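Long-time lurker. I teach an intro course on protein structure, and each term I like to show students one example going from raw sequence to a predicted 3D structure in token notation. This year I'd like something fresh instead of my usual example. Would anyone be willing to generate the tokens for the chain below so I can use it in lecture? Attribution to the forum is fine with me.
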Amino acid sequence: MINIFDKFNNEKVLKWIKILMFIGLSFFLLALITYKIPLPAAEDLPRQMANGRDILQGDFRSLTQNVYSFTDPTHYFANHHWLFGVLAYISYMAIGWSGMVIFKIILILGTFFLMFKTALKKANFWLVAACSIPYIILLGARGGLRPELFGYFFIALYLYIITSLEDNKKNNIIYWLIPLQILWANLHITFPIGIMLVGGFLMEKIILNYKNIWQNKLIQKLALISFLLIAVSFINPNGIKGVIYSLEANTVNGGSVVSAEVQPLFAIDNDIPKQPTDVAHIFLYLFVITTISFIVSYKSKRVFYFLAVFGTALLTFKIIRSFTFFAMIFLLVVPENFNIVFLKIREYFLSKLGLLKIKFEIFLSIIFIIIFIFVSNFFYKKGIENMQPGLGLTKTAEDSARFFIDNNLKGPILNDTDIGSYLIWYLYPKEKVFADNRFGDAYNEFFWKNEYQASFSSETKWKEVDKKYIFNTIFINQYDRGIGLRDFIFNRIHDPEWVFVYGDDYNVILVKNTLENKEIIDKYKITVDNSYERFSNLVNSENSKDQVTAADLFGLIGQVFYTQSSFARGLAINPNMPKVWFAMGKTELERSDVENSNPSLALLFLNQAISRGWNSANAYSFLALAYYRLGFIDKAKEAVAQEFKMNPKSEDVKVWMKNFIKYDAEHLK
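-- Reply from a regular --
Happy to contribute to a lecture. Here you go:
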């Protein structure tokens, strides 16, 4: 080996090792973010593209009004991402859907490159590379084509420019932040972060140079830049309202409907299992590591880093989607904080053990490669399990919209928030939507409480709202997890006033049972008797996800046998789908003909689900029901105890406890 090393320039060998490692990291990120656009699945992109289309056609109402809805069209809306919509629409017209995925990839890889290069200014390559792995995982989790990608890019660019001042305090590159801030203020709501980054850096310099504040040229420059960044942020279509509005967006003031993305980090969801590899847990691991790094480097006096870390951490605890911002700061801060310790360890191996530097680097690279292959393989499978790798749109992304358009269906449309953006892109201005996922940004609180949510949770309220708007079509994402939504779809399918005419792996469409819709009903009506034939393309598919879609559609119709058989076919193709095992157990226990349900079979399905990772509070609740029906009361109590451990506030547990008390009292007599 020594002879081999002697033949090459050690520095060149080390350089190429590092280049290959960086390429490997880039390909890991590329694998996580290269997937087709699932346009109907709660994406903002189609609505934002509609913004761009309208603006370029000279219609500027979407900058300040909720023009896409017939329920609250005069509601004030400060469109803080209008420029992204313009860019997205131009990109679509120029390079199509596949080109837009490539554009997203370039933007994300550019962000990663900037962050990596910035971190390398103050830390060893291997520390930066190691910290890049969790950063990539968290960045990949937010890899959809949305305006916040520009937020990540600008944060990376700002950090690169700000840290450049430490190497050269006379560097005037920081003045480029002024035009960048104008762009950012019109691309995404995260633009105040740019001001905070410069302000945090300024605060550090003030604290460290408090005796010489007024004479310090760097402080003067940073103070001027901070003021200018604040000033130019008002250069947006809504002026001061746009800036203030950006701090209040994505909320429903006191309302009951909000985006899942703006929930607290550990908001309890009984339907979703909690895993050590979930985003929330990864964030906590990184937060602990970051805290330790500050303890190790307590002499560094990096006030800016401290403020950035705990500011983004606090934001993540409050709003879950902020974890990517924390991950970016993690990549910058932790390698630098651990750098001195790492160099001392390396020096020990080099001096005490007499190792050549290149041998040590190769040893590190081997360890890194082993860890990297294991982690990247695991998280790649986890990251794309619900995605379709590739470019362009997912295979049925446009089908439901085409069905609506080709068959000349008409509104008014009742839709859920998840599908609103999709409908705006394909149907506006011919049709407007009932609601979309801008929530309280674009709709009033009365609408959310008394019309939107009430319609899906109360049959009486639904009839009142239907009478008010006289709906002709129901167009709903069947996987929207809003309260009562799936039950609502089931009820409408079995309501003689409505007819089920379309279903795919995203959406279902129903039309009102009227003479005007007779032609479409006669041609496409889906019933208990013809459902197997209508969904034969899914039933005969060799794709496990198609089988699950078929099962879910059969479930809406009430065909339990077809539901279970489709689930079973899906599991035969891919048995590692714990959610499907859970769905089979749940379906068996929830049969309307309870006397024909098989709790032993349900128990088998539920145990498979839990053993394969679907250990949610709900899973243990249904497990308790299966044991209870079989007469295994002690086992049922154990399952409920586990459910209580996972969710102490569960109302379901209280019901179970009352049942157990009643059962014990009856059997003690």
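Some talking points for your students: Residues 138 and 372 are 15 Å apart (CA to CA). The chain has two domains: 2-33+78-249+265-383, 34-77+398-526.
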